[in-house]
Amino acid sequence: MDEFKKALTEYLQDVCERFATVAILPREWVRVIPVAANDITFGMELRPNYRGLLLKTFGDTQTSTTFSSVMHALEHNPALSNALLRNQNVLNVMTLWNDFMDPFLFAYLERVGVMRFDQAVFDAFIRQLEDEVQASYVIVVQTNALTSVQMTLPSFTVDNGLVIRQITSDDVEGWINEWALPSVRGLSDTPNFLDPKCALEIHYRESLVEPHRGAFLEVEEKKNRLLTALQLVTERNVHVDFTTKKTASAFRRHGGLNQSGMWLNRLTYSTLLDLPELNNVKAIYHLLQTSLNVALLNLPIRRFVSASDRISDEDRLIDYWIALESLFGESGAEISFSISLRIAGFLRETVESRQQVYDEMRHSYSWRSALVHGNTWDQKVGRKLSKKSDLASTTAITRTYLHESIEKLLRMNQGFALNLLDVDLFSRKLKG
Residues 6 or more apart from 297 whose CB is under 8 A from it? Predict the structure, then answer.
């Protein structure tokens, strides 16, 4: 580490001496200013364009002896080299500049403000670097901007290192200036940054020693599980609009911006979550990992969630019945009778309420059969079915009963078995 520290000191002093008199040109910076509870306005100011100066720095110093000395110091210290470079075991001019020099110099310029060697600032960065290398990891913050959901609280903790929070004007300002075009005119090129109101934020450790696929999979699992919980609670197509990654390290490039391309989701209404609903989201999130019926619910939940992305009631109703049949159906005759009876018996206790659910599910299944077999093109069939309940109303009530079934199965303290449900229904019938 001493050889690297000495080489880096000489390189930074060299850079500061070369560019001490070079003017740092300004860049336009878009200000996002809150003016009301849910309203913002925009301004423009000039800020130093450190990135432009760094491009010139790289061009003028990549062949310097001081830059080469830093390269040699890392060649003599493979452990440090692997900790600093993303593409481990590949040390060359470009990897050194992109993975370490550029983010380090940018952070240094932001701290000092001019090309001047400041021993105290440099020593502070070195101490931070030594701490990170010794710890062998850095903390990464992944921010996932969400569609179709808002919240009344500033933030809400769901799990260790996992929160749902409101998106602030500072978030939007940072995204626009970091990821939008350098010159923004009316923000017409970046509407996505203005649409989301909430974000799913995950804090996790990223190894500096070796790529840790397990950590990435754990982050993705948490994110997807929380999205599923939000979709179940809100009954809306909550998705990630875009994702950003940042670290607290001065020596790491930010992970970038990834857009999901889910443009259709921004056409739907948002659900406003208050504290009781957020507590329900948290409970469902944990049940999706611990419930005895998670494996059974994989397909029904996928179909329930995917149905919210469908445009037509026809497609939604078919998705709902695929989910319901996977839970309550079995091969054989009179499936409409048996599956409707099971849904009614599973969800309701009294004779009257079971009868209502049974009748509605029989009618819904008739709609499903007409759609699957193409009979809805027959106007007589469509009119006959609509006389009792039209397709939109039938689809809505089917969604409600599927949603109730999924939540009840998640919260059961025992595994669900169809034969046990049949025995229970038969027993209740005898008692009745």
Answer: 291, 406, 409, 410
